[in-house]
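Problem: given the chain below (268 residues), write out its structure.
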Amino acid sequence: MAVMLGAGQFLSRLIMHSLRQRFVNQSLARQLEQLNNGLESKVRERTEQLQRKTEEVSQIRDVTIIAMATLAETRDKETGNHLKRTQTYIRALAMKLRSHPRFSAYLSDDCIESLYKLAPLHDIGKVGIPDHILLKQGKLTPEEYEIMKTHPTLGGDALAAAEASLPAPSRFLHIGREIASGHHEKWDGSGYPHGLKGDEIPISARLMALADVYDALICKRVYKKAFSNEDAVAFIVDGRGKHFDPDVVDAFLAIQDEFVQIAERFSD
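Solution.
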């Protein structure tokens, strides 16, 4: 009997200990769950704050780009819609070329978005061109033309200086510098300011070159009539392998109807 009583007391203590331990474990689990929920809530709140701040910085950056580009355009004979058209052309070309073996590694989603946002800065260097040259109604003299040809360098240098002021290199500003400094280079090496040839010309600048030329052709200016789309296409085809990267021209030909739609949507 004493043995049975002792065994019963032992089992009772064991069960009570197990119940107490279970209660403690459940209490700890609840506390841990509450702590975890609190941490998750704080992480979500902090993440949302960072996302809002990132979006705000991005919006400020985008507005600054448009403001700078618009300032440059006010000193030129171009219109504000030239900026919208060319940035939309360049995005269309990039989307068409993103699956091409020569371009796929470069044309990521982020890169295409950067091209679209930075395209309006292609002529930012014209801010440094004297008014008597930039606003001249007639044909430029050889000396004036040489000064006009400095605008890619002026724009590229300005963006390079902006990038250099940052604590780390900026791929975003680097693309902007490529566009500003390289959009007058030609595939055969006859362009300016550096006479780059073929793949020496950054992809961003090759896309900008075609977008800029097409828009210049189809728009009326005081010194020329507007080209029809057919004539503009013929001009660009004639420049395949000379002025323009052949693959960029082929992409343009495949989506030329989209270019027409863009031109109509953002007409002057």
